[in-house]
Specification:
Blueprint (H helix, E strand, L loop, with lengths): L3 H10 L9 H12 L11 H43 L1
Helix pairs in contact: 2-3
Length: 89
């Protein structure tokens, strides 16, 4: 008869096998994580976690760049509209 501790020791001696996830699925997960639409998945290998972390960072960085670019474009459009209005008055 095995005890609970024997079962725990057996699990730590043989860690659970990492999930087999395609690169495509990993990228989709990264996008969902970056958007806050998914909780961090469990069961990933160390390499998969590193890849996922890097991809999430890249998606967040790209989103931030798009946001900043949109704000700059909106400021330019506002200034152009204001100058055009001043020229007409």
């Amino acid at each position: 008869m095995t005890s609970h501790n024997d079962h725990q020791n057996d699990q730590s001696a043989h860690p659970a096998k990492a999930l087999e996830i395609s690169r495509e699925t990993l990228l989709r997960c990264a996008q969902l994580l970056a958007n806050g639409e998914l909780d961090w998945p469990s069961g990933l290998s160390h390499d998969q976690e590193l890849t996922l972390t890097a991809e999430v960072r890249q998606f967040r960085r790209a989103g931030l760049v798009r946001f900043i670019a949109a704000q700059i474009a909106a400021d330019i459009a506002h200034e152009t509209k204001a100058k055009a209005h001043e020229a007409c008055t």
